[in-house]
């Protein structure tokens, strides 16, 4: 009985601790590519947007999230952020019309040196496709969506030498600002990888926040330079999607994080 009460109290405390995390969803391609977990079929994406619209969710922008976390500016009760990594062409042709249909906003993170090109940086067996062109990026902005940098070349930032790291982070910010004539304040880490050294350079380059995935993120305190995101894979079930945008969304980040930490621990022990 006593243990049960303690368990319930812990659950309630955890709920209040984490209920203010705004779910930040991570998408890549909107396409039907069998075997690619980063490509979500168009019909599934529409089903998800329809659910968000019918259940009064508001898709917020990075600016709104920043104002909320730094100045306590209130957000709509059911807020969610939609992010697209790498700036694939199908984000423009498939995702944008659906986002407009359901009156939703999203932010795309293109790679500066890969704008309007084939996806050759993914030379690890990914299906060939292309990325959004400069004109399409401008139309994406005109449609009320946001664009923020995803570095120059999409490297593993933690493996870059100091000089290269500064270029990847600072030059992509300056390049996009010039190209799109708007401030670039929020970086997205390629592969979600970062460390203390990377964060120092991001701060020095005057970014206000940075988006990660689950690796290396802290869940107890919101770190503006290590914001966790929840991946939406190609096989995403609707019941799970509903939980991913609910007030217990952070559990999905925690599960992936613990799984990764456990695998690392196992490798250390058995190597
Ligand atoms: Zn990426």
What's a quick, concise take on this entry?
Residues 78-271 form the NodB homology domain. 44% of the residues lie in helices and 12% in strands.
How many H/I helical runs? 9
Number of domains: 1
CATH superfamily membership, which one? Answer: Glycoside hydrolase/deacetylase
The count of DSSP E runs of length 2 or more, i.e. the number of strands, is: 10
- Biggest sheet statistics: 6 strands, parallel
Give the helix proportion (percent range). 40-55%
> Kindly, what is the distance between the CA atoms of the first and last residues, rounded to a whole number of angstroms?
43 Å
CATH topology: TIM Barrel
- The structural class is alpha/beta
Shape: globular
Q: Report Rg.
A: 19 Å
Distinct small molecules: zinc ion
**Beta strand %:** 5-15%
Which CATH architecture would you pick?
A: Alpha-Beta Barrel
What value does the average pLDDT take?
Answer: 93
CATH class assignment: Alpha Beta
For this entry, give a set of tags.
271 residues; globular; 6-stranded parallel sheet; binds zinc ion; TIM Barrel; alpha/beta
Structural description of this entry:
The chain has 271 residues and is an alpha/beta fold. It has one domain (22-270): Glycoside hydrolase/deacetylase (TIM Barrel), CATH 3.20.20. Helices cover 44% and strands 12% of the residues. The protein has 9 helices and 10 strands. β8, α7 (196-204) and β9 (209-211) form a beta-alpha-beta unit. α2 packs parallel to α4. The model has no long low-confidence stretch (mean pLDDT 93). The structure holds zinc ion. Zinc ion binds next to β5. Zinc ion is lined by residues 85-86, 150, 154, 190. This is Poly-beta-1,6-N-acetyl-D-glucosamine N-deacetylase. InterPro entries: Glyco_hydro/deAcase_b/a-brl, NODB_dom, Polysacch_Deacetylase.
């Amino acid at each position: 009985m006593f243990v049960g009460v303690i368990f319930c109290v812990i659950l309630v405390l955890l709920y209040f601790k984490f209920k203010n995390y705004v779910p930040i969803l991570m998408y890549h391609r909107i396409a039907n590519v069998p075997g690619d977990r980063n490509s979500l079929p168009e019909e599934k994406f529409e089903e998800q947007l329809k659910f968000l619209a019918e259940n009064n969710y508001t898709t917020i922008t990075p600016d709104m999230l920043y104002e909320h976390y730094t100045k306590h500016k209130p957000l709509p009760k059911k807020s969610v952020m939609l992010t697209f990594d790498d700036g694939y062409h199908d984000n423009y042709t498939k995702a944008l019309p659906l986002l407009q249909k359901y009156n939703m906003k999203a932010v795309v993170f293109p790679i500066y040196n890969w704008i309007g090109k084939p996806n050759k940086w993914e030379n690890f067996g990914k299906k060939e496709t292309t990325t959004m062109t400069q004109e399409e990026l401008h139309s994406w902005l005109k449609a009320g969506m946001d664009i923020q940098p995803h570095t120059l070349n999409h490297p593993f930032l933690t493996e870059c030498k100091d000089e290269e790291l500064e270029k990847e982070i600072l030059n992509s910010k300056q390049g996009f600002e010039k190209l799109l004539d708007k401030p670039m304040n929020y970086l997205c880490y390629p592969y979600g990888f970062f460390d203390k050294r990377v964060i120092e350079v991001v701060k020095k380059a005057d970014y206000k926040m940075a988006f990660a995935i689950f690796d290396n993120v802290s869940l107890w305190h919101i770190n503006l330079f290590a914001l966790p995101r929840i991946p939406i894979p190609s096989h995403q079930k609707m019941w799970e999607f509903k939980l991913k945008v609910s007030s217990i969304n952070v559990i999905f980040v925690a599960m992936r994080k613990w799984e990764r930490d456990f695998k690392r621990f196992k490798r250390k022990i058995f190597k």
